Amino acid sequence: MSWGRLLGGLVIAFLAVEPFLPLGRMREYLVHVIVQIFIWSFIGGAWSLMGRFGLVSLGHGAFLGVGAYATCLLWNFFGMTPWIGGLVAVLLTVALAVVIGYPCSRFQVVGHYFGLVTLAVSEVIRLLIIAERDWTGGSLGVSLKPAPSDSSIWALQFADKRVFYYIAMALWLAGLWVWVRVDRSMASRAMEAIGEDETAAASVGIHVTRFKLGITMLSAALTAMGGVMLVQYLAYANPDTMSGIGVSLRIVFAVVLGGMYSLLGSSVGTALTIALSEFLRIYFGIKLIGIAETIYGLVLILCIIFLPSGIYGSIREALRRRSSGTAPA
Amino acid sequence: MIDPLFILEAVVNGILLGGVLALLALGLNLIFGVIDIIWIAYVDLVMLCMYAMYFMVTVYHWPIVLAGVGSLVLGAVLGLLVHILIISPILSSPPINQLLATGGLLFFIQSFATLLWSTDHRSVRVNLPVLEVGGIFISFPRLISFALALLAMIGLYLFLTRTFVGTAIRAVSQDRDATALMGANPLRLYLVTSAVGGAMAGIAGALLIIQYAVHPYFGSAFGPLTFMICVLGGLGSMFGAFVAAFIMSQVISVGGVLISTEMGYVVAFVIFIVLMFVRPGGIFAKRT
After folding, report:
1. Residue B197 is part of which domain span?
2. Which end of chain A has fewer surrounding CB within 10 Å, N or C?
């Protein structure tokens, strides 16, 4: 695995200094792409906290949308700093998660049913955003009002994208830290048991509702933070890119492609899907509208069929098989 | 105050919409109940059939009935293709992978349609009068769609209850392993189910194109609604889906007139979420 270590070290070194490398115009673009990878990886990681325990949520678009829109609207209409507005947004999202998560865990809404209930939630949020067009700008989206001065910590807006780069990186690392903490906790064992068989878990004294609700709240809160970060960075929110079934599916895709049972799975998956769609977008430009997405969809189907445990997971399996094969018996 | 006639008209339109929604939900629910996989892209297959209808009728000037049959056949073929190419390789994968594979298909179909036909809205013009009954206007194409949707559903019902294959399909949805022990091959039945489900999509497409304009994102408008109806009626329950379709279409139609189109959908989805908590197995499930 020393090659893996070396590669990992190189990637970390590159990520740390990338914003200062002399790459000319390319640098700005790379910064933009990597910031998005950081934020979406963070959101994917938040999703996988639930997904790995069998809580397949298609409602993370709702959490993302509430986080992003609440922060943006509080700033636009009341001038509330995103530091407080973001907190309000996260609390709102957690409240939404409780309203949905509590009955779901209490009444054992699981499997397909859980997926479709959460799907309905994300559609409700998307439609509400479109319906309240006086506030939210409807399907045209809403722009974040620029702060009075160019870069302001108060407004969490920076003209220099490199500031966002390091904030997003910190957020991403924090997300990984949370993931590890959850992974090593007792709660993780309990959640695994619940994911296998709820009744059996309850019979050995695990408080099923409490654990499920807890992990749902944590996942929702982190997703909302991702939404806050996203809207601050893009300075624009749109119901179709921030909420609804499309976004929910994209999050799940990235994580499942990467492999949801490993720490870096969601990051690898997100990096690959974003890189793929950016590559296709640039390669085809405006020549054939829709071809980039067509190929994207096709690649996703093929990956799911041929790499069932995700790209990262499959590579690791292959490496393990090779190293165990070459090792002297 | 809104004129009561408007509301009455909304109720009638809701019933007419319910017929087509019920057809959609039944097709999806059949696949759902038998193969136990959610075809997220089901309504996108309907969208493809709508495009096919558009080209057959408007561009190649086929008679509309013949085009409808063509749409039915196309739907069945698409259903088979989806099953053979995408579903059968991942039959034993975890449910999330199955869900995502058809989700990928959704992205693929939507963007492929955008690539081929751009995002223009297209519709088939049928020269049929608008009926006026006691001050209420009823669109004749909708009435015909409703009647044909009912006919298609009766056909499906007869197929499932009166034929050997239909009985076997119902048996698989009850107990896959026991059916295999009785000598029926589940894998072959899956093929038949996919074809029949696809054919339902084809019929629905033919009926929808004479009321709505088609565009590549048509599936996003009706897709989530169709899943909700299936779940609300109880996965695999045909009768439940039928009733649920009319409940949802009433809420959407009347809510759309009373408040706004989006809020009609919001109310319908919220009712769905609440009902799921009260009756997790669907509205007709027995309480355990």
Report:
1. 18-218
2. C
